[in-house]
Amino acid sequence: LSNKACILATSAAFASSSSVGLNTNANSYLFIITYTPHVDCGDYVIVVNADKVKLTGKKMTDKVYTRHTGYPGGQRFATPADYLAKKPTFLVEKAVKGMLPRTRLGAVLLKNLKVYAGAEHPHAAQNPKSIKLNEIK
Fold it and tell me: Which residues does 60 contact at the CB level (< 8 Å), separation at least 6?
């Protein structure tokens, strides 16, 4: 990670045994609310244990993500359980993207999100500050 001029600290949020909504709400809060909502302050948010994230109710099997390949008849459907098996970081990334503004600033802020399936991440040299999700409220 490159150091930006106004970076304060890298935050590490732990996604294990928390629902996607709570995790995403906290991550978008770290991006926008704690700082100026119209400025990218350069802080990065690292989410680890994304493979242990949970969904409430029967959303793991009933919710459907739709995408299109661009070819005729190319509509594809997948459940969160499918994505959790193939790419565990997708659920957290998609949820955070949905809570960020749909502007150029939102695209820049999304690049500051680093999601990892396991407990290890390569950003130990930046001395990330650990934040428990239930303390952010």
Answer: 54, 79, 80, 81, 84
DSSP 8-class letter at 128: P
pLDDT band at 72 (very low <50, low <70, confident <90, very high): very high
Report the C-alpha dihedral over residues 34, 35, 37, 38, rounded to 10 degrees: -170
Give Cβ neighbours of residue 47 (< 8 Å, ≥ 6 apart): 12, 13, 14, 15, 23, 27, 92, 113, 114, 115, 116
Name the phi and psi angles at 60, rounded to 5.
Answer: -60, -30
Contact 30, 131 (CB under 8 A): yes
Task: Report the run of H or E that residue 27 belongs to, with start and end.
Answer: helix 20-31
How far is Cα 52 from Cα 13, in angstroms, rounded to an integer?
Answer: 13
Q: What's the pLDDT tens digit per position in 119-131?
A: 888 888 887 777 6
In angstroms, the Cα distances linking 63 to 26, 58, 91 are: 22, 8, 12
Q: pTM for the complete prediction?
A: 0.77
Cα–Cα distance measured from residue 18 to residue 120, given in angstroms and rounded to the nearest whole number: 18
Q: What is the pLDDT of residues 81-90, one digit of tens each?
A: 999 999 999 9
